[in-house]
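Late entry, written up from scratch paper. The run itself happened at the end of the previous shift, but nothing got recorded in the book at the time, so transcribing now.
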Amino acid sequence: MLLHSRGAGVLCANNQAAVDGIFAFAKDGGVLAPSNAGLILWQSKLDPRFTDIPLPGLFDAMDPYTLRILREGDAAIPVIKIVFALAARKPALKVVRRPATDGYNAVVYEIWCAGISPDILRPIEKEKAGVWDALLQASYGWKDLYNKASSEARDLRRSVNAGAASDSGHWSRWAERTQYSGF
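Output as recorded:
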């Protein structure tokens, strides 16, 4: 809430589980206080495997208690969960409102925003939709930079982007992968 009072949200680190960003909002009026707060949690996906069909598991993973945004014992607050499936070929906007339940005593909205389209995302102007599509396409080829070099040079290039992907070169120059669980 302190960040929100400065007009800021939280942009999570790469590979943060289940959420890419967090923003607080005042649910009633303009006073931001714990008793008047809500959360917006979002994920952005640039993978065409995420289509116009929502995946409920992504929303389930955006649990503010599991992610330790809220602590056990904190009152349930309204949550808006958004998944941006930006590489979806078919644009779609699907909104599900989940009313308060005994398990979570506040309303939860789940919003699936598929594709980069002026019909779905207001900042995209129809005459500039091609620019946005070109930016999306450019995001697919980032690994090609490494494939144009010899295997030694490839790993050296990857080491400059430490931890950026699972290829060994992103790790081998600065960490022993076997010493960490999860690798």
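The chain is about 20% helix and 20% strand.
(Scratch paper discarded after transcription.)
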